[in-house]
Task: structure prediction
Amino acid sequence: NSSPSINLAIGPVVEEAVTIARTTFDPRVTLTCSVEADLPAVKADPNQVHQMILNLCINARDAVQTKLRQ
Result:
């Protein structure tokens, strides 16, 4: 289930998702995040944005781990 879309400051949501990813990924995988401080708000569901960022991080991790195994 999703929350309704709201005017969302996306930076903190992105940073939180990246922090979660960093704590669960293999330490050989370095994850960096750079979010501009003055981003405008977006109309979005914060749960969906959080899940999307985590999914992107997981996809990137999987691609890197595939390269590490080669």
Observations:
- The beta strands are 6-8, 42-44.
- The first strand starts at residue 6 and ends at 8.
- The chain is about 55% helix and 10% strand.
- The helical segments are 10-24, 46-69.
